[in-house]
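go over this record:
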Amino acid sequence: MDRRTTIKSIIVVAYVGLSSFSFYKWIALNSAIDIQSLDQKKSLIAELGEVIIPRTDTPGAKDAKVEEYTIRMIKYCTERISQHNFLNGLNDLEVYVQKNYKRDFAACTEKEKIAVLQHFEDKSVFKVKVLNKINNKFFGIPFFVRLKQLTTEGYCISELGATKGLAYDYIPHMYQPCIPLTKDQKSWATK
């Protein structure tokens, strides 16, 4: 056997292996899912949201009922691949917490919860931004990225988030294109 034939066969085997793995992952992400099982994870989503936006002198994510917004958005406004990623991410998180802390996420301490979310954040994004774009295009938005997006969106558009968490001007009296912020002022809820 000569060297060229060996190199060609190695390339063919590697190509077939990669393409079969990608095809398997694509099939798995596009298969039917039980999206109604998301309702059973409402308390877990609420706990995750509360770690991302905790209650301080302003209401937290639980107070703003961000979990209801997240579930509605995943069920009705998200493509199937991202639904798979989200449900698989929730299941992976539960398994990770049981394996490492021997209890449910809600029973973990604040430091443990932050460590769990930090682990999933590190796992969900690449250091090279181009790889993130390619991954999002072919395999959907990762679980933790979508969770953070929906938590902040849900909080900012909720009544509590807009009025108590952000500076809210109920009736703007005149247009000012550039308003300087004062010390310790909240971000504007209206634009």
